[in-house]
Amino acid sequence: MFIDYVNIFIKSGDGGNGMVAFRREKYVPDGGPAGGDGGKGGDIIFRVDEGLRTLMDFRYQKHFKADRGEHGRSKNQHGKNANPSIVLVPPGTVVKDKESGAVIADLTEHNEEALVAKGGRGGLGNTRFATPKNPAPEHAENGEPGIERELILELKLLADVGLIGFPSVGKSTFLSVATSAKPKIADYPFTTIKPNLGVVQSEDGRSFVLADLPGLIEGAHEGVGLGHQSYDTLNVQKYSFTLLTFQV
Ligand SMILES: Nc1nc2c(ncn2[C@@H]2O[C@H](COP(=O)(O)OP(=O)(O)OP(=O)(O)O)[C@@H](O)[C@H]2O)c(=O)[nH]1
Ligand SMILES: [Mg+2]
Questions:
Q1: Best of 171, 173, 184 to mutate for ligand 1, by most ligand atoms within 8 A of CB?
Q2: Segment among 89-98, 118-127, 226-235 with least mean pLDDT
Q3: How high is the pLDDT of residue 114?
Q4: CA pair distance 10, 146, nearest whole angstrom
Q5: DSSP secondary structure of 21-61
Q6: Going by C-beta distance under 8 Å and a sequence separation of 6 or more, which residues neighbour residue 116?
Q7: DSSP strands (E only) in the chain
Q8: How confident is the model at residue 243 (pLDDT cuts 50, 70, 90)?
């Protein structure tokens, strides 16, 4: 299976700091603490968009950062939580932690989501630290920092178009010209023994995945030649598939 890789960097939002404040009202002396809590930092969420087919966009944008939560304010006003940052990925994207290699998410279905970095918790305002012994605390908490991670995105490509034909008719040659893939090309039959995939880029920025498949000969369903097992790896039944047939 053809796999596309990219390395990206993410940072979820820092939590907002808690506030140290005291009530100051005209006729109320020693009004007591009134510092609000900080808001939560933004999460980083990956979401599948079935309109995307490649990891191409991540070649240009590799850093994703969510906003920080607002700081707490006086009069016990809480800072606002930051909105999550949504990163759109194509179906078939596997997200791994660069450091440990652990798989964080395997995203396949349209709109499927994975929380890859939680935003930092907001810090508590000084109101929260008031006790009978210390009714006017002078301290508040800082927000928790966001999480920084380096991730690897791997895309298990599913083909949109398959090249099917007898051995040595030029299927691999076609793939090598239409895409940047470098399949083995030779003038003997069954040069290609496993599917090769490449991405065809059109001038208007669209793209699709092209599969070069092993040659087929009569009786393939009975195992003649290389048989047709390799075609099963392309999920032909599950995904609609365009076939270009080649003949000499
Ligand atoms: N004359 C001519 N030769 C070609 C053309 N395209 C490919 N070839 C040659 O035909 C031979 C087979 O090409 P491949 O691209 O390996 O053919 P294939 O269909 O992938 O073959 P298998 O993988 O064995 O099924 C190579 O020697 C190519 O250089 C063409 O348009 N004209
Ligand atoms: Mg070939």
A1: 173
A2: 226-235
A3: 97
A4: 10
A5: -B--BTTBSS--B-PPPPPPPPPEEEEE-TT---SGGGGT-
A6: 10, 44, 45, 46, 95, 104, 105, 149, 151
A7: 3-11, 44-48, 63-65, 85-89, 93-97, 103-107, 113-117, 148-156, 161-165, 196-201, 207-212, 242-246
A8: low
Put simply, whether the predicted model's pTM sits higher than 0.85 gets the answer no
For residues 40-51, give the mean pLDDT: 96
- Among protein residues, the one whose CA lies closest to atom 32 of ligand 1: 170
Per-residue buried b or exposed e for 157-167, using 16+ beta carbons within 10 Å of the residue's own CB: bbbbebbbbbb
CA of 227 to the centre of ligand 2 (A): 15
Residue nearest to atom 11 of ligand 1 (CA): 187
Radius of gyration of the chain (CA): 28
**Residue 185 CB–ligand 1 contact under 6 Å:** yes
Asked if pLDDT for residue 246 goes beyond 80, the answer is no
Domains of the chain by start residue, with CATH: 2-156 (2.70.210.12), 159-246 (3.40.50.300)
Is 187 a pocket residue for ligand 1 (Cβ < 6 Å)?
Answer: yes
Q: How confident is the model at residue 86 (pLDDT cuts 50, 70, 90)?
A: very high
Alpha-carbon distance 40 to 13, whole Å?
A: 8
Nearest CA to ligand 1 atom 9: 170
Mean pLDDT over 17-37 rounds to 85
Averaged pLDDT of the chain: 88
